[in-house]
């Protein structure tokens, strides 16, 4: 479910930024498929994500795709490129030796534009348990990588989704105890940064709320802001909020964020590149209960894996991206 571990190609950063600016101008002049895709998040007194806007990565896969988009596909792809999305940190692309500088640069750029960067940390040992996004670091390497990320985060506010699927998959993987220990250590290493951390809360069509709450409590959800739901999945926001509020009630009122990047039409029961799906609500903070924000965590347009006509997990899939917009 993760992005591809190495970028397929790069273009000059100044050129990328120009593309994003041009895309935004195009939307202002010619209309928009998504409503208020870059509007400021609503402000709330106690929501750490409620005071600003979310960061648009000038080197996202959508931005790179927009550089070569033409004809009828140009507008939709540019719209995706102009919408704030999470930045996935994977060790295959950003190893410990370089990840501090990379994260520090993103955080500084976000601060300069008065936005909040969203990161997904995705490098835990036995990542995805040998499935489409198999990989990750060794038990010895992972703590050092997390510390390097924490150093780059500094004290500026950023949102961090810590290891999607790590806790929800742990029972199937047979490594609940080690996953809990690894998660607790990662929380410790991120604790002095400005990160607003959300653990893996699965989704509404997976484990019962009580089961999710139990493993979240064991992993240390009381020491972070809360948990994330629906990452890389398609369930409706209403279903996710209802499920997450049940989990919250069982975890001492933990807060949560919902991945709405691809849930506009809800789920058809498939998780790997299902047809007929659509982009969902754009990223914005929430003041509803324990719901901190809707975020585009999984990048719309990046494949879930080699299924239903898609390329390997994380690779840009232009046909899939256009389907999400048109549906």
Automatic annotation (TrEMBL):
Its EC number is 3.2.1.-. The active site is at residues 128, 165. PROSITE patterns: GLYCOSYL_HYDROL_F6_1, GLYCOSYL_HYDROL_F6_2. Keywords: Carbohydrate metabolism, Cellulose degradation, Disulfide bond, Glycosidase, Hydrolase, Membrane, Polysaccharide degradation, Signal, Transmembrane, Transmembrane helix. One of its GO terms (molecular function) is cellulase activity. The keyword Repressor does not apply. Signal peptide: none annotated. The chain crosses the membrane at residues 16-35. Belongs to the glycosyl hydrolase family 6. This is Glucanase. It comes from Conyzicola nivalis.
């Amino acid at each position: 479910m993760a992005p591809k571990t190495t970028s397929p190609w790069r273009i000059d950063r100044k050129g990328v930024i120009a593309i994003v600016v041009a895309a935004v101008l195009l939307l202002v002049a010619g209309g928009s498929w998504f409503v208020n895709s870059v509007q400021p998040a609503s402000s709330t007194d106690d929501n750490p994500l409620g005071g600003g806007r979310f960061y648009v990565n000038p080197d996202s896969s959508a931005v790179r795709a927009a550089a070569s988009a033409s004809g009828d596909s140009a507008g939709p792809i540019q719209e995706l490129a102009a919408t704030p999305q999470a930045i996935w940190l994977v060790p295959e692309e950003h190893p410990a030796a370089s990840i501090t500088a990379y994260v520090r640069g993103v955080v500084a750029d976000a601060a300069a534009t008065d936005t909040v960067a969203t990161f997904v940390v995705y490098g835990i040992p036995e990542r995805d348990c040998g499935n489409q996004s198999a990989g990750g670091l060794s038990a010895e390497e992972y703590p050092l990588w997390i510390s390097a990320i924490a150093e780059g985060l500094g004290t500026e506010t950023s949102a961090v989704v810590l290891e999607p699927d790590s806790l929800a998959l742990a029972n199937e993987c047979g490594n609940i105890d080690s996953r809990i220990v690894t998660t607790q250590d990662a929380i410790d290493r991120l604790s002095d940064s400005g990160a607003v951390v959300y653990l893996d809360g699965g989704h509404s069509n997976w484990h019962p709320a009580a089961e999710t709450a139990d493993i979240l409590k064991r992993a240390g959800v009381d020491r972070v802001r809360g948990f994330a739901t629906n990452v890389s999945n398609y369930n409706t926001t209403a279903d996710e909020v209802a499920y997450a509020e049940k989990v919250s009630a069982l975890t001492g009122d933990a807060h949560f964020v919902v991945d709405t990047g691809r849930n506009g039409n809800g789920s058809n029961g498939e998780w790997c590149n299902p047809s007929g799906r659509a982009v969902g609500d754009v990223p914005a903070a929430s003041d509803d209960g324990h719901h901190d924000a809707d975020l585009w965590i999984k990048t719309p347009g990046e494949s879930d894996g080699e299924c239903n006509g898609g390329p390997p997990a994380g690779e840009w899939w232009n046909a899939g991206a256009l389907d999400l917009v048109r549906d």
